[in-house]
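User: We ran a pulldown and think these components assemble together. Before we commit to crystallization trials, I'd like a predicted model of the whole complex to look at. Sequences follow.
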Amino acid sequence: MKGVTILGSTGSIGVSTLDVLARHPDRFRVVALTANGHVERMAEQCRRWRPDYAVMADEEAAGRLAGLLRGEGVGTEVLAGRDALSSVVTLPATDYVMAAIVGAAGLMPTLAAAQAGKRVLLANKEALVMSGDLFMRAVRDRGAELLPIDSEHNAVFQCMPPRFAEGLTGHGVHQILLTASGGPFRDRDPATLDAVTPDEACNHPNWDMGRKISVDSATMMNKGLEVIEACWLFHTTPDRIQVVLHPQSIVHSMVSYCDGSVLAQLGNPDMRTPIAHGLAWPERMDSGVEPLALAGVNLTFGEASTQRFPCLGLAFGAARAGGTAGAILNAANEVAVAAFLGGRLPFPDIARVVADVLERCTVVPAADIGTIMAADGEARRLAGEYLQTMGRRN
Ligand code: NAD
Ligand code: MG
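Assistant: Here's a predicted model for the assembly, 394 residues in total across the polymer chains.
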């Protein structure tokens, strides 16, 4: 029996993870669930799963949750705050940690899971974008197991040679081909993007996801973050990664080899596949996902344009720059996406905020967590300044 702690259990990935766990009660037990502010949903999850601990982001939400559970005889201990997140991932009873908090808020507990030598099921790509070097060193030094859950990286992982960590070239890998659907605005006239609403941007053609990653998919910053994520996970550089437009989201990514072979992983677009893969690895287990019916499916591929999707170009630039560039890019993007979702920034200006902040920040080696958090803070400050100046102009 493996003990599982889910960071971000009330979100899209968290709920899919519980759906997969429910199919295997003989293999997994839920140790702790965590969420930001979704008290009612968390209360339902506690009633159903009876975890040892539930962690809410603040005291107020934790108090409300404890109040709901108290009268019902649910023995879950309710905790609050950031330190509690890191303490539940490091519990001896926790074997596997699903890292599915969205954004920089996921960095510290995800890093804590790696440092505690756990199996880390990594959905929170922002953690790796911010602190890839530190994170990968923690995984190696503390004997943690890192299983990519992001569908593209899970696909690449499945197509990689077994000893890829020793170096891609030595094992015949030529390139990583990351597929991208192009999101809801793939074919839209760029001149009309000023008017798009948050709901339109979140209406992804193939995937049902949280709002932040949905906006990132519409700008293709998501693919950009994934390029950086792939560099760290697969010990490679951005010049070995190609982004391929694939509107159907059936081929989740590919690995091209020096003998001309291209290995691909295919499946229906449903995150329960990579989640089940990460939980069962190196075995396989049922995920609840329908088998792929290929008859009549038309698979098409094209080039991803950094002109149409400037965020993709900015992320490639940050990947080449290294150091704190990833943390700066990520923080500026988080501020810009929140402003867009709050109706305070037009969609095309997300890329403008990120470009402006990257230009004004100095990139330094991401030597330690203090340096990374300082870069994150400075980028958030500069992005806030940009938004204020813009507000004054309008
Ligand atoms: P979501 O918004 O649906 O859920 C986010 C979860 O994190 C929620 O449980 C929320 O309560 C929690 N959370 C948010 N802010 C928090 C904070 N400050 N402190 C503590 N908890 C907080 O997001 P999602 O779509 O499930 O994505 C989660 C992560 O997985 C993201 O990093 C995303 O990039 C990645 N991912 C998601 C998908 C997908 O299909 N949804 C695919 C690939 C990767
Ligand atoms: Mg992805």
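The chain has three domains: 2-148, 150-269+301-320, 322-394. That may be worth checking against your pulldown data before setting up trials.

User: Thanks, that helps.
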